[in-house]
Automatic annotation (TrEMBL):
Keywords: Coiled coil, Kinase, Transferase. This is Transport system kinase. It comes from Tetrahymena thermophila (strain SB210). The keyword Coiled coil applies. One of its GO terms (molecular function) is kinase activity. Residues 57-159 form a coiled coil. The keyword Coiled coil applies. SUPFAM superfamilies: Tropomyosin (SSF57997). The lineage of its organism: Eukaryota, Sar, Alveolata, Ciliophora, Intramacronucleata.
Length: 166
């Protein structure tokens, strides 16, 4: 609101002018015309500026510039954080792939080693089973030979005893 708008509305010459001046002074007392209100770092400050409208505009422009600069700073910070996030995700993916490849290779190596030990154990079991069967066969053969020798000894003892009586 400016002084000309009050005089046009009042239409009462001198009386309107006094009323207008009082209103203008009242506005000045509460900081509308000569005071400046600035917001910097989240605090409000009331300062005095002789050119009220120009001061307000300048203050508004400064506040807008400060907010714009802060917004730009936050946008840059956001971009940096996004870039760091992307970099960390890539590093994490590389490490995850590396661990997965290492574990896959270790698993294959252990499976091959188990298979080799299993085949070795199977061959060893077969060899021992073959020896057991051979030993059983030899035992049976020796038992038959022993039985045959015992019968022969008995026959010889009978024959020796028979020859002595003659």
């Amino acid at each position: 609101m400016n002084a000309t708008s009050y005089s046009n509305k009042s239409g009462q010459g001198g009386f309107g002018r006094k009323s207008q001046i009082k209103e203008y002074q009242n506005m000045d007392n509460i900081g509308y015309t000569s005071g400046t209100l600035s917001v910097a770092n989240g605090t409000q400050q009331l300062g005095q500026n002789p050119a009220s409208l120009k001061g307000k505009l300048q203050n508004l422009e400064e506040t807008t510039k400060a907010v714009s600069d802060e917004l730009s700073m936050h946008k840059k910070e956001l971009q940096i954080l996004k870039s760091e996030k992307d970099t960390l995700q890539q590093v994490l993916k590389v490490k995850t792939d590396d661990v997965q490849n290492t574990l896959t290779n270790e698993l294959k190596r252990l499976e091959d080693e188990m298979r080799r030990h299993f085949n070795h154990q199977k061959a060893e079991t077969h060899r021992i089973q073959t020896q057991i069967n051979t030993l059983k066969a030899e035992k049976t053969s020796l038992a038959q030979t022993l039985n045959g020798l015992e019968h022969r000894i008995q026959d010889l003892e009978m024959n020796v005893g028979n020859h002595e009586h003659f």
